[in-house]
Structures are given as C-alpha cells and as structure tokens.
Amino acid sequence: MPELSKNPRPVPELDPVWSRIRQEASAAVEMEPLMGGVFHSSILHHRTLEQALAFRLSQKLASAEMSEQILREIMDEAHARDPGLGTAARADIVATFERDPACERFMKPLLYFKGFQAVQAYRIAHWLCLQGRSDFASLIQMRVSEVFGVDIHPGARIGQGIMIDHAHSIVIGETAVVGDNVSMLHSVTLGGTGKQDGDRHPKIGNGVLIGAGAKVLGNIRVGDCARIAAGSVVLEEVPSRSTVAGVPARVVGEAGCSQPSLTMDHLLRGEI
C-alpha cells in the first residue's frame, strides 16, 4: 500500500472556503435552530472540508449493500491519499457560488446541491478506478445515479471549477473529458454514437457552457470557451469561442464573451 500523504490537512484559519462554510453554518444555527443538528453533524463537527464531504456523501449514498461507515472510510482514505480531491471540491464550491444566483452561501452546495454532491462522489469513484478498484467505483457510480439522477462513469476525466445546475439526468460517458471551469445545466449527455469500444466520448474544453438538454455525441472536441445552446444535438467538432445551436447543431456565431461558462448567458441574440 502506498504511504499516506504527509501534506498537512487544512485548518479553518488557513482555508478560506472551509472557514466561510463554518461561519455560515454557525449563523444558520442561530437563524434556524430546529436544523441545528444538521448544521452541526454535517459541518461544525468536522475539522476539514474533506471530512465533512466524506460524512455528507456517505450519508447520502449508504444502502443495505454498503454501510455509511465503510463508504466514509473509503472517502477519508481517498482524500488523505489525493489532496487534489479537496482542491477540486473547493474550486467547485466557488464556481457554484459565483455562477448560480440561487447559491448565496458557500455551504449550500455541500448541504443541498445534488450536482455538486454527485461530482464529488464521482471524484471518489474516479480515484478508486485509478487504484484498480473498479467494482467499488462502479458501486458508487450506481448509487450516485440512483440517489442524485446523475450518471458519470468513473473512467471519465473531469477538471475543477465545475458547476452543474439542477443536475437532473446528467450522463457523462467513460472516455469523456471535461476541462476546467465548465458549466452545464440539467439533462446534458456527453455520450457515444453506438456500441463501439475505445475512445468514443466527447472532449469538452475549458470554459465551455452547455445548455439544458444538449447532447454531445461521439469522440469529438468542443473547443475552449465555446457555447452549446439548450436542446442542441452536437455531432461534429465545435470551434473554440463559437456558439452552436440546433439539431444537428451548427455554428451560429461567436460565443459572445471570453468566458461563457462564467457569465452563464444562454441567450442567442440574432445568431440564427
């Protein structure tokens, strides 16, 4: 077994994201005392964000087949061995706060947003997959799909700063790649075009915005900072900093800004 990481775990005063979450939870106890048990058990009883994530996710994903305790131990192990998991979670929290107007506090993704929770559980499953523990990874994938309605294959590669709004019916295939700072809405599919083996899923660049219900199919590349309109079916390469729309999708104009995933502007203004 590889040695545990010797990197010191973050403490609240040195971790601005976790410190803010704890401050928000303390204030929430005062505002909603009937939920004090939730705020304490999910946030205030934990020393780090990683510990809180492991607790929250294991609570959500536990079943008769796999206990909360075992899941939590696996997630604690993953975070201890790969500090990048916690780094990505913090980037995802900040991304959600900055891009989702319904997220006015850092603690909301951790407690309530299934898109954030599903992505963090996928990150654990992906770590397990890299360790050769494919059955455990598949079990987590199954439970995430059952509990959150989000199906991300553990073999997919997903960057950080990810925001999935609403997240219902998200499907991301085994060989898909999603870059950093990507935003997508519900019912997005990054899928294949048949039953062929090998590299068969889309490659999404950095800063891409994918609208609700969009389907991107096949081993094609969506360039950096592109924008895919809601309901589109994308079957061909998408140039960087362009907007595509339609069934099948075609280029209808430029992306409209340098970072569409950050502005979250889905409107087509005269492009079609």
How would you characterize the overall build of this protein?
Keywords: Acyltransferase, Amino-acid biosynthesis, Repeat, Transferase. It catalyses: L-serine + acetyl-CoA = O-acetyl-L-serine + CoA. InterPro entries: Hexapep (IPR001451), Hexapep_transf_CS (IPR018357), LbH_SAT (IPR045304), Ser_AcTrfase_N (IPR010493), Ser_AcTrfase_N_sf (IPR042122), Ser_O-AcTrfase (IPR005881), Serine_acetyltransferase (IPR053376), Trimer_LpxA-like_sf (IPR011004). This protein has 272 residues and is an alpha/beta fold. Helix content is 40%, strand content 14%. The protein has nine helices and 15 strands. The chain has helices at residues 16-31, 36-44, 49-61, 68-81, 84-99, 107-112, 114-130, 134-148, 260-263, and strands at residues 150-152, 157-158, 163-164, 170-172, 177-178, 183-184, 189-191, 203-204, 209-210, 215-217, 221-222, 227-228, 233-234, 242-245, 250-254. The strands form three sheets. The protein has a six-stranded mixed beta sheet with strand order 3-6-9-12-14-15. It has a five-stranded parallel beta sheet with strand order 1-4-7-10-13. It has a four-stranded parallel beta sheet with strand order 2-5-8-11, with no helix packed on it. Helix 7 runs antiparallel to helix 8. The chain is globular and about 50 Å long. The N and C termini lie far apart (57 Å). 44% of the residues are buried.
